[in-house]
Write a structure and sequence with these properties.
162 residues
Length: 162
């Protein structure tokens, strides 16, 4: 009788351990999660407002330009990866990091930098003005790998560049 109880306890603990472990490992990335409201809109890293300096967030999509390729992550896409010409579309996976940082995965490709809503300064006619901004950071995730700390890039709304 004691042997049967011990086997049941060991089996129960093993099942509990295996069923909990995968859930904890993937707890941060979620599909079909909306993009945070603070990040939504079109943001530019350069005054020229070119496509290569643009990043766009809507409730359901994250769009960025990687070289000449446009990457679109959508939380409404059923199939995982689709490519039409120079546009790549995949599922959007959103990861909420600590302190307001977010990471985005488009399809199976991890969008490396972390993103957060903040404020930053731009100079107009010799004066600094504070504007809402989206900050892209490699150093938040990787620190000082390779000896040099990568610089963060700030994206502003088009109205801030005028």
């Amino acid at each position: 009788m004691n042997k049967l109880i011990k086997e049941l306890v060991v089996t129960g603990l093993a099942l509990a351990t295996f069923s909990v472990t995968p859930t904890k490992a993937n707890a941060n990335f979620r599909s079909h999660q909306p993009v945070p409201k603070s990040l939504r809109g079109t943001w530019y890293s350069k005054k020229s407002l070119s496509k290569n300096s643009e990043v766009k967030f809507t409730r359901n999509t994250f769009t960025t330009w990687s070289g000449k390729y446009k990457e679109i992550g959508s939380n409404k896409v059923k199939k995982n990866n689709q490519q039409h010409g120079k546009t790549f579309t995949g599922k959007l996976w959103v990861e909420n990091e600590k302190h307001g940082w977010y990471s985005f995965e488009v399809g199976n490709f991890y969008e490396v930098p972390a993103w957060r809503y903040t404020h930053a300064y731009l100079r107009h006619n010799g004066k600094s003005h504070r504007y809402p901004a989206v900050e892209r950071s490699f150093s938040y995730l990787f620190g000082r790998e390779g000896g040099a700390t990568p610089k963060n890039v700030y994206f502003f709304k088009a109205s801030a560049w005028k």
